[in-house]
Amino acid sequence: MTETTAAQGQTLRQLGPTVYLPSAVYSTGIGAVAPVIVLTATGLGASPAVAAIVAGLLGLGQISGSLPAGVLISRVGERRTMLTAAVFAIPALICCMLAPNVLLLGAAVALLGVCGSAWALSRHAYLTEAVRPELRARAMSTLGGVGRIGTFTGPFLGAAAMHLAGLDGAYLVAITGVGLATVVLIVSPPVPHDRAVPAGAERPGLWAVIRANRHTLRTLGVGVLLVGALRASRQTIVPLWGVSLGLDPATIGLIYGVSGGIDMLLFYPAGKLMDRYGRRWAAVPAMALLGAAHALLPLATGAFGLTAAALLMGLGNGLSAGLVMTLGADASPAAGRAEFLGAWRLCSDIGQGGGPLLIGAVTAIASLTAAAITVGGAGLLAAVLLHRWIKPHPRYE
């Protein structure tokens, strides 16, 4: 079998128009508004603290949407779930743009998070069944890669639109992106494995699936939670460290952008590494690098040191592209797969929501240096747990 052969005779290139293109366009649209939510909240009179809470509701919506999305996919299929998510995402974006107060803005942001969770989980569930195991990591890392490209380019498109239409311009880019992704989804031919569980077939309940897989969720799932925390922490601690060094916003943005560029370049090599040699070969080095980069931040006393640490974070994060989705696909049962993947995504989402909170809490109690060292320790713990609980590669480990 070649590197690009997938189930049903499909290749990764053939999956592009039906799987990767809609995801890339959707991610680009949402990426355009991610940095703007805080500005919208402050424009409505919110304090910086309240604005940060409003922005955090996007993650809270993702967390709360994971389990219901898994159930919905099982009942109506991936395609209908994504269309449902888009149907609600566009009004949510319009509401964000036109919200007369912070309360309504917060509700719309949370709904946007729920829709994003449903969209992402649908793609994950589809690829889990549509791609053969020997190609799985490359398929998942490519999905993660197009999402990262979208969230990287989205803010630039949003910034360009804001020069013409103010904050509304970013929301118009997002509405266009979600709308285009929906159109691509509608006009694309039906794909194999996109189906709901037949009405007459046995459909295990959500909690029954969680109970049956509780050992996996409380072992490997904890490792995945730490992966999510580390990924989110780097997005918070790099700007904070730059501010503590007195760097100007443009320099901080450039450092962060270069780190993101390294991250994006590694998604396919990371998937190939996992497929060829096993998941541990990417998971353990990725978490060790992310942890070490955080732990070394106290040595960064200027722009050069922060750039070096940020590049190391980008390298570690890039090596973990598609890791969470691949491990979830490997561990998912045939019966109740969508429900399991919803619970699996919940572990990662909790970590992503908790990472920045951990930094804030430790910084408030001790210092930003203590927060960096704490997150560094979490990275080393994640590397140990993933090495312990990831099943060895059948040929190479």
UniProtKB/TrEMBL annotation:
The chain crosses the membrane at residues 81-100, 146-165, 171-191, 250-270, 282-315, 358-386. Residues 15-395 form the Major facilitator superfamily (MFS) profile domain. Pfam families: MFS_1. InterPro entries: MFS, MFS_dom, MFS_trans_sf, MFS_Transporters, Sugar_transporter_CS. Signal peptide: none annotated. Gene3D superfamilies: MFS general substrate transporter like domains (1.20.1250.20). Keywords: Cell membrane, Membrane, Transmembrane, Transmembrane helix, Transport. The keyword Transmembrane helix applies. This is MFS family permease. It comes from Actinoplanes campanulatus.
